[in-house]
Amino acid sequence: MKIRPISGFPEWLPEQRIVEQKLLDEIRRNFELFGFRPVQTRVVEPLDRLTNNGSTDKEIYIVRRLHADPDEADDKLGLHFDLTVPFARYTLENRGQLVFPFKRYQIQKVWRGERPQEGRYREFYQADIDVIGQDRLPLCFDAEIPLLIHAVTSALPLPPVRVHVGHRKVLEGYYRGLGIDDITPVLRTVDKLAKIGPEAVAQVLVEEQGLDAQRAQRCLALSELRGGLEVIDAVRKLGVEHALLEEGLGELQEVMRAAAELPAGTVVADLGIARGFDYYTGTVYEAFLQGLESIGAVCSGGRYDNLADAGDNAKFPGVGVSLGVTRLLGPLFRREVIAPTRLTPTCVLVVLDKEDSRARSQAVASRLRARGIPTEVFHAAQKYGKQIKYADKLGIPFVWFPGGDDGTGEVRDIRSGEQTPAHADAWEPPSEDRWPQVRGRG
Amino acid sequence: MKIRPISGFPEWLPEQRIVEQKLLDEIRRNFELFGFRPVQTRVVEPLDRLTNNGSTDKEIYIVRRLHADPDEADDKLGLHFDLTVPFARYTLENRGQLVFPFKRYQIQKVWRGERPQEGRYREFYQADIDVIGQDRLPLCFDAEIPLLIHAVTSALPLPPVRVHVGHRKVLEGYYRGLGIDDITPVLRTVDKLAKIGPEAVAQVLVEEQGLDAQRAQRCLALSELRGGLEVIDAVRKLGVEHALLEEGLGELQEVMRAAAELPAGTVVADLGIARGFDYYTGTVYEAFLQGLESIGAVCSGGRYDNLADAGDNAKFPGVGVSLGVTRLLGPLFRREVIAPTRLTPTCVLVVLDKEDSRARSQAVASRLRARGIPTEVFHAAQKYGKQIKYADKLGIPFVWFPGGDDGTGEVRDIRSGEQTPAHADAWEPPSEDRWPQVRGRG
Prior knowledge:
Oligomer: homodimer
Number of helices of chain A: 14
Strand content of chain A: 15-25%
CATH topology of the largest domain in chain A: BirA Bifunctional Protein, domain 2
Largest sheet of chain A: 9 strands, mixed
CATH class of the largest domain in chain A: Alpha Beta
């Protein structure tokens, strides 16, 4: 049978998986440092739940048993295309057993049947966090999210992140203050600013949305504001007044103030963001790697009024972001800007000098592993040169030559050639050599 | 829309996911301590690859785009039902870039469309290791596997494991030495020993396979042998001679000798195992938790001659085992024999005494997190009693009362009530409290 890759379903070499795993571990570690609780959902949802939640159903993969019994009453199932739909269902299903505010993280693969193209995948990892309240959710959770995005990305060998924070209430309040009633088409038009430029946006606002030229210009003036806390005052100087605008500015200010503990420039207020406002109702986030903006937002999300309709009067307001792990990793691999220090977890290769002494080599390995040092015994009593070559190919940094049966021997750093006496119950590798590390290149 | 579980697709509460994640982490850590390299494959394979590999195709879930274009030349795809089929394909696909012997581990979900029943899942985690050679693979890798199974299971709060080791060459050589030519039906019959008992096996061997009563008894005599290294001699005392039998006994002996470093009774030679011999060609393994044998084998596998047909003359002999993570966890959850020490990663809850001092509480949290201590700030300036109640519900062990803006304050262990002065740049929780632990109950 011919073997070929399936377009859109990426697979990595073991050394790339080491990088991916390290990324996933650091994401998880930081999510947990902020007190988020882990959730995994099944990969399938009833098809009607997937198609009911505002997605274009073109993207969905359906799943069924190859030989389903004709009389089988199985629900129609599909693979989840994000982690929000299953999480909403999970929260309703388990609401009686969850502690609210419910801070949860979820790191899983999702599937979308889109036509694959550069940087688009059909199977990819997402790492989501959300905080869900019952009936209400304090704004402090909105303020925490940029801190978390910064913590996650600075734990990795990546360029510094810049988190753009926008706010639906600021835009909507401002437009209403200008006397614009039909907000949605204006938001959609302003959202095209980066793509079609300010003149074209103004033209559409005037010709299609019926704004006069002056109001169109004032919409654009808001969208161009970008910066630190001073942006709040800059909005006020535009001279538009509306209660919703003031509410939004107050909320944006709280999020920006909490960001003051981060390095300057990490978080910027950006009133050009008009994305996702069919879903998000307050704060919105878009995060980019500085200098790698071309790979797109690595993280985005926002505040929403209700995660899911519980069928009673209960509301579940929430705020969250999604980090596109595979969408981040793919370009980093292609650009070769990130690499592991070796191709295997193994830190020490114990040589085998003759078949009879296998027990001795094995005992050294067991002693090292018992102290958390990843160790392999070479599999055949070949010439040392051949054994060292195997270590070299995989980037295993240390080769151990057993001496007595008591765990003594000599250990060679094959990078420097330095060889020293050592005991398997006491020798420690430099801490950066114990497990493979992930490093930025250049 | 009505919400109900989908039979066979288990989901856990966050505190159960903490347990599952800890289990997966320990499995991975031990696989890596033995030098296995990580691989993940896409979840879909071409359908013809899935149905070509000896599985009953009834079990397969097929996957297709909901609105696939009629002229789309997409391959028919299915979800993988194990990790062996995708790994075989992956190894062939990447053989030019892999270093052999290729020690790989793979921890992923798999899907089988079986009718769900007690202890059977349609979606479940498997954790596989395999070592693949080019053309040949030394026996030392067979000998390493029981050490690895012991290392993985003893890192967890589980009863001790017992690894049963059988050997196809011993059984086949013994039968051939008895003059039996058609081996397969005899192996299949002996495999039913535990289910139907020795009399019924003897009866089938005589009536259906045409053995005389004496040879049937000698087959049974082999199958009853179980124990340590002495089993090798016990086989020889049965007085059957065959070159393949001797070869098998030599191999079994090498595996059993390597197990001598483990606690007595951890590894037993068991010539009653006749399972999987349509696939396995040498050593076979079945591992059980002592006292929990009723949940079935938690780990099984063996040696095979060729992982995959490369289309040229290349052979890829291998040896490996698969650990059924979900099949293990499900019964442990149902029996409530395993539980986490708390319901959240959070170690410290920082209280908020008034809205104005949020920055102070937040600064304490940042200092603690920077030193790797999972910390949350309570979200509202409610009465301390309410804030402590939240910590109590989640099992968060420590509550922090901020003092000055310099990180000073007091920390209370809410289990003992003991409260002491502390500084957020210096205070350390007891190491077992830093992250949630997983403990056996009773």
